[in-house]
Design a protein that fits this description.
Blueprint: H1 3-19, H2 26-59, H3 66-99, H4 106-145
Helix pairs in contact: 1-2, 1-4, 2-3, 2-4, 3-4
Length: about 160
């Protein structure tokens, strides 16, 4: 599931890089490395929040239907909405001005900023919309198989024995 944030971030970065006519260079590669770090981090945190919301529903006796899974995914995604949007706004507010700057050093900074700016837009769409959808799809499949709940570990030997 964590491949999706990098793939969507890559598409946005490539699109803006193509629109601005930047060739692939070391500076652009540095931008992609930074972008992938942010994208994977926000994706992982979203999945953690989705799992926590689902676990809370399981502990209260819910999470027996698809509607319960969807409610848990919405609850977890809503908790991450503001922090994700704050991350995107902070990155865009700090790097977007570099894209129209023409002073000293801008020839080095523009190729670094372009993939990050483009990728943050598409990555945020992925993390806020698609990750919860894929989460529900995977958990619904596990629910149908009867594997949503943790397995009883009565067959294992405890360390004290």
């Amino acid at each position: 599931m964590l491949l999706f944030p990098t793939a969507y971030a890559l598409t946005g970065g490539l699109l803006l890089q193509w629109l601005l006519h930047y060739n692939f260079s070391v500076a652009v590669a540095v931008g992609y490395i930074a972008l992938f770090g942010i994208a994977v981090e926000t994706g992982v945190v979203m999945v953690v929040y989705l799992h926590e919301a689902l676990e809370k529903r399981v502990q209260t006796g819910h999470a027996k239907t698809r509607a319960d899974l969807e409610a848990a995914a919405i609850e977890g995604a809503v908790q991450r909405l503001r922090p994700k949007l704050m991350t995107v706004v902070a990155v865009l507010a700090s790097l977007a001005p570099i894209l129209w700057e023409s002073g000293i050093g801008s020839d080095v900074m523009k190729p670094i900023a372009a993939p990050i700016v483009g990728g943050m837009i598409t990555s945020s769409i992925n993390v806020l919309i698609l990750v919860p959808v894929f989460f529900v799809m995977l958990k619904e499949r596990a629910l149908r198989r009867g594997q949503l709940y943790p397995q009883d570990r009565t067959d294992t030997v405890s360390p004290s024995e």
